Amino acid sequence: MTSSVLVAGATGDIGRRIVRELLHRDARVRVLTRPGSGTAAALFGGDDRIDIVEAAYGDPSALTTAVSGTDVVLSAVSGVRPVIVHAQRALLAAAVDAGVPRFIPSDYSSDYRRIAVGSNRNFELRREFAADLDAAPIHATSILNGAFTDMLTGTAPMILFGRKKVLFWSSADQVLDFTTKDDTARMAALVALDDDAPRVVEVAGDRVTARDVARTMSDLTGTTFGLQWAGTTGTLGAMAAVGRRLSKNADETFPAWQGMQYFVSMFSGQAQLRHVDNARYGEHRWTTVRDVLEAHLGNQLIVGTASSATRASGTTTVA
Ligand SMILES: NC(=O)c1ccc[n+]([C@@H]2O[C@H](COP(=O)([O-])OP(=O)(O)OC[C@H]3O[C@@H](n4cnc5c(N)ncnc54)[C@H](OP(=O)(O)O)[C@@H]3O)[C@@H](O)[C@H]2O)c1
Q1: Which ligand 1 atom lies nearest to the CA of residue 31?
Q2: How far apart are the first and last CA of the chain?
Q3: CB-CB contact of 246 with 238 (8 Å)
Q4: Domains of the chain: residue spans and CATH
Q5: pLDDT tens digit string along 19-75?
Q6: DSSP state, 276?
Q7: Which of the listed residues 7, 14, 142 should we mutate to test ligand 1's pocket, taking the one with most ligand atoms within 8 A of CB?
Q8: What is the mean predicted confidence (pLDDT) over 167-183?
Q9: Can you give the pTM of this predicted structure?
């Protein structure tokens, strides 16, 4: 039975959440961090349920020692080819060498398996590594969760809050899969502790169309949010290709053009989840798109009220 989990990339946004969820379930956690990375001790030092091990991805014997004796290697690393393909290959080789029975790659994405070649760099890197994983003598499980719902209020510019519009490409009725970071982390911990997990576990905290999102925003704000056609997924893909050609830093993980490619994959339906199994580990209240938008609007209201109160009291802040 799985009880000891090595988490690579545990110092990252998703990694930390996964470690928290594993500890809730009484797992023994080993955090793998790169020498010089610097944050693992501050984040996890002093917790006797967590061991911290340092190893460079370019040092096979140190990596093998680092993963030895664990039941599953769970990756939550982030980056482009040097990380998703090269570092994960090194981690996989170490896991196989050390006889670790199971491996979970850093996927946490929409379904990258059927997307068109050249349409989404980050997804194709996952697909490339998945081929290595499929060929390795290890029990592998990928977690596919769609886009992080959290991004709807930040880095994914689909809702134009100020202009009261919701953008769509090609079809306002295309189903889009969303799961929050916390729900994804919870699922990753459950999968890590499940010796019988299949090759792919698909979950979606919510499945909505752009039309649903516009309706939800109208409902929550009491103001009509209209749908705005922003072109076809074909034109968006072409714009992403131009952005990619003009970009100066090929190693940036989430440049704007990659965000466009994410929308191409989602709005074309190519990356839609087909085998969602939210009940695999029993009933759970999944955070919906509405929940996330409601919380965001509530926060904005609080910030707005606080700044009008500050203005009313004549207080000024010098930055
Ligand atoms: N579905 C979605 O919408 C969505 C959105 C965002 C992210 N994601 C995915 O979620 C996963 C985790 O992302 P995150 O945002 O949590 O990542 P993150 O916070 O940027 O970092 C994850 C960790 O990766 C490790 N790392 C960084 N550079 C590395 C390198 N060159 N070689 C090896 N390890 C390196 C670091 O750990 P150490 O320094 O401790 O070694 C870092 O803490 C990624 O696969 C990402 O693509 C999905």
Answers
A1: 40
A2: 55
A3: no
A4: 4-146+179-204+272-284 (3.40.50.720)
A5: 999 999 999 999 999 999 889 999 999 899 999 999 999 999 999 999 999 999 999
A6: B
A7: 14
A8: 98
A9: 0.93
User: Do the beta carbons of residue 2 and residue 194 sit within 8 Å?
Assistant: yes
- Determine contact, residues 109/124, Cβ cutoff 8 Å: no
CA distance 182 to 252: 24
Q: Is 36 exposed, middle or buried (0-12, 13-18, 19+ CB in 10 A)?
A: exposed
Would the CB of 79 count as within 6 Å of ligand 1? yes
The answer, yes or no, to whether any atom of ligand 1 lies below 6 A from the CB of 263, is no
Quote the CA–CA distance of 106 and 299 in Å, as a whole number: 31
Find out whether 241 and 99 touch, Cβ atoms under 8 Å. Answer: no
- For the Cβ of 188 lying below 6 angstroms from any atom of ligand 1, the answer is no
Per-residue pLDDT at 318: 29
Q: How far is CA 214 from the centre of its chain?
A: 24
What is the rounded CA–CA span in Å between residue 53 and residue 79? Answer: 21
